[in-house]
Amino acid sequence: MKILKFLFILFFIFNINNVALAKSNDQLELKISKNLRCLICQGQSIYDSQSDFAVSMKLLINKKINEGLNEKEIYDLLIEKYGEWIVYDTNLNKNTFILWGLPVLLFLIGGAIILKKLVFRKV
Amino acid sequence: MKNKILLTVLIFFLIFCFAIFLKSLNTSSIYVPEKSEKRELPEFVATELFSNKEITSNEIFKDSDFYILNIWASWCAPCREEHPQLMELSSNLSVKIIGLNYKDNPKKAKKFLKELGNPFSTTIIDKTGIIAIEFGGYGIPETFIINKDKKIIKTFIGNLTEDALKEINSIIK
Predict the structure, then answer these.
(1) What DSSP designation does B159 have?
(2) Helix axes B77-90 and B162-172, enclosed angle (nearest 10)
(3) Superfamily grouping for domain A2-91
(4) A57 near B CB under 8 A
(5) Which letter does DSSP use for residue B152 in this model?
(6) What is the pTM of this model?
(7) Is residue B48 a contact partner of residue B122, using CB atoms and an 8 Å limit?
(8) Which residues of B14-26 are buried (b: 16+ CB within 10 A; e: fewer)?
């Protein structure tokens, strides 16, 4: 009886782990597919698009997650095949430095202007 | 004086915006993937169309200096148009042509090859479209040139034109 109980607990723990893993994999698949651009329905994400390409891409993402690849490895793999354009959230490199740098620059300039006005007003 | 500076800045800004919009009007908004040169050939296992047996990429890509992988389907009209070009290429013995039958009905695919001729030394089935994506394909027809080091050296998107055929011949000669 004790062995049976022990086996039941083991089975229960194993199943809980499997369910949790499947859930986290589903969430990762969802996150990746929302950050990828469909090359057929340009302007839609892989998650939103129902094109043949997007359907196959979702299957590929699922396959790669099950093979043990992490989020970054999947993005790198797809960037190598389709270029940086396929991801919405691009990495910082020589092609995207204006995209990432300009808002920071504008924020700093704006901040400096406001600061200057405030200091002058006090004086 | 201050107003004059503001007006000049505003005019320059408007000219700048106008130039950007004018340039955008003459630029295509349709993105075509920038394929990195000499990409690695993906490793996969697929089913052969005629024998229905499983075959690995290592078994397919061996014993040739160049390989041409063509993504096609019987339901794709441009594939029918480019078929004579593939038949012409198949007469070149220094190249092995592999067909990737994309999301197709096997019966219709066999009928298509029977009707127009079979240029492929091996035809593999891609029911889900995953193999096409592993190659970096995003539509059909699409053709990839692979060298003996198993690197994808050239991609042709769309049906093979006479110019593309000339380019392929210059690569594989």
Answers:
(1) S
(2) 30
(3) Cytochrome C biogenesis protein (1.10.8.640)
(4) yes
(5) E
(6) 0.77
(7) yes
(8) eeeeeeeeeeeee
Interface of B with A (CB under 8 A): 29-31, 33-36, 39, 103, 128-130, 132-136, 138-139
Dist CA B73 CA B103 (whole Å): 7
The full set of domain ranges for chain B reads 39-172
For residue B165, give the amino acid letter: L
CA distances from A116 to A90, A108, A119 (A): 34, 12, 5
Q: What is the pLDDT of residues B65-119, one digit of tens each?
A: 999 999 999 999 999 999 999 999 998 888 999 999 999 999 999 999 999 999 9
A23 CB within 8 Å of a chain B CB: no
The domain over range B39-172 is classified in CATH as 3.40.30.10: yes
Contact list, B136 vs chain A (CB under 8 Å) = 81-82
| C-alpha dihedral sign at B123, B169, B130, B29 | negative
Cβ pair B119, B86 in contact under 8 A: yes
d(CA A75, CA A84) in angstroms, rounded, equals 9
Alpha-carbon gap, residue B71 to B52, rounded angstroms: 18
Predicted confidence (pLDDT) at residue B37 exceeds the cutoff of 90: no
Nearest by CB to B31, from A52, A81, A85: name it.
A85
Amino acid (1-letter code) at residue A98: I
**Token representation of residue A122:** 């006090």
| 3-class DSSP state of B81 | helix
Tokens of B9: 């800045």
